[in-house]
UniProtKB/TrEMBL annotation:
<dbReference type="InterPro" id="IPR003593">
    <property type="entry name" value="AAA+_ATPase"/>
</dbReference>
<keyword id="KW-0547">Nucleotide-binding</keyword>
<dbReference type="InterPro" id="IPR003439">
    <property type="entry name" value="ABC_transporter-like_ATP-bd"/>
</dbReference>
<dbReference type="Pfam" id="PF00005">
    <property type="entry name" value="ABC_tran"/>
</dbReference>
<keyword id="KW-0067">ATP-binding</keyword>
<dbReference type="InterPro" id="IPR051120">
    <property type="entry name" value="ABC_AA/LPS_Transport"/>
</dbReference>
<dbReference type="GO" id="GO:0005524">
    <property type="term" value="F:ATP binding"/>
</dbReference>
<comment type="function">
    <text>Involved in beta-(1--&gt;2)glucan export. Transmembrane domains (TMD) form a pore in the inner membrane and the ATP-binding domain (NBD) is responsible for energy generation.</text>
</comment>
<protein>
    <recommendedName>
        <fullName>AAA+ ATPase domain-containing protein</fullName>
    </recommendedName>
</protein>
<feature type="domain" description="AAA+ ATPase">
    <location>
        <begin position="36"/>
        <end position="180"/>
    </location>
</feature>
<keyword id="KW-0813">Transport</keyword>
<dbReference type="InterPro" id="IPR027417">
    <property type="entry name" value="P-loop_NTPase"/>
</dbReference>
<dbReference type="GO" id="GO:0005886">
    <property type="term" value="C:plasma membrane"/>
</dbReference>
<dbReference type="GO" id="GO:0016887">
    <property type="term" value="F:ATP hydrolysis activity"/>
</dbReference>
Length: 215
C-alpha cells in the first residue's frame, strides 16, 4: 500500500522572542493526512500561519516538533535537491511571472517525471482580464490527474474567488487560531462559524449562494 502523499505528524512550530528569556509569540499546530492526489483549498485570516504551514510542507522552515512526510519521506531529513523533487512552493510573485510567460500548450503538456509530488500555490493573482485563469485551473487539474497533490491558498475578496475555490477544490484546510482544520468540502467550510466570521457578511452571503446553486 502506497504511503499518503502528505502527512503532518503532530507538527508544531513555535516562534519566540527575547534574548535571555524566550517567550512564545506564535504557535501553529497541525496533524493531518492527505492520502490521495487532489486539489486542496486553504483559507484563513491574515497572520494565521498559512505561509508558515506552506514553508514547513516544502521543507524550508523546520517545525519545532513533529514530522512532515511526503510520500513517506521526511522532507526535513533530506538534502535541498531532494526536497525539490518532493514539494514546491510557488510564491505569489514568482507564480504570476512564471505563468504569464507560458503559452497554453506548455501548461497542458504532460509533466516530466521529476515534477514534484506536492505543489503549493500561495495566493496566486487570478486576473479575469488576461485570459489565464482557465489555463491555470486546467494546469491544477492536470497535476491532480497525473497523481499529484495541489494545495491552493486563497484570500477571498470577491465572489468569483469563492467560485474558483468551490469549482476546483475537493477538500479544504481552514487555518486560524494556531490550528489547521480539515474540511470535507466547500459546504462544510462555509458552514463553519469561524470561516463565516473570517469571510464577513458579504462573502458569506456569496458563499451560501454558491452552496444553494450546487444543491
Amino acid at each position: 500500500m502506497a504511503a499518503p502523499l502528505l502527512v503532518l505528524d503532530d507538527v508544531r512550530k513555535v516562534y519566540t522572542r527575547g534574548r535571555v528569556i524566550r517567550r512564545p509569540t506564535f504557535t501553529l499546530q497541525a496533524n493531518l493526512s492527505l492520502e490521495e492526489p487532489g486539489i486542496v483549498g486553504v483559507v484563513g485570516p491574515n497572520g494565521a500561519g498559512k505561509t508558515t504551514l506552506f514553508e514547513m510542507m516544502t521543507g524550508s522552515n523546520a517545525p519545532t516538533s513533529g514530522r512532515v512526510l511526503v510520500a513517506g519521506t521526511d522532507i526535513h531529513g533530506v538534502k535541498y535537491r531532494e526536497r525539490d523533487r518532493l514539494a514546491i512552493h510557488y510564491h505569489q510573485s514568482y507564480q504570476v511571472r512564471r505563468f504569464r510567460k507560458r503559452v497554453p500548450s506548455a501548461l497542458l503538456a504532460p509533466s516530466p517525471t521529476r515534477t514534484p509530488l506536492v505543489h503549493l500555490f500561495d495566493e496566486p493573482q487570478f486576473n479575469l482580464q488576461d485570459g489565464y485563469i482557465g489555463f491555470m485551473l486546467d494546469f491544477f487539474r492536470k497535476l491532480r490527474d497525473e497523481g499529484r497533490l495541489v494545495i491552493l491558498c486563497m484570500h477571498p475578496t470577491a465572489s468569483w474567488h469563492l467560485d474558483i475555490l468551490a469549482e476546483i477544490a475537493g477538500r479544504f484546510l481552514f487555518v486560524a487560531g494556531g490550528g489547521v482544520t480539515p474540511m470535507a468540502d466547500f459546504r462544510a467550510l462555509v458552514a463553519d462559524p469561524r470561516c463565516r466570521s473570517y469571510l464577513g457578511p458579504d462573502m458569506t452571503k456569496a458563499a451560501d449562494a454558491i452552496c444553494q446553486r450546487s444543491t
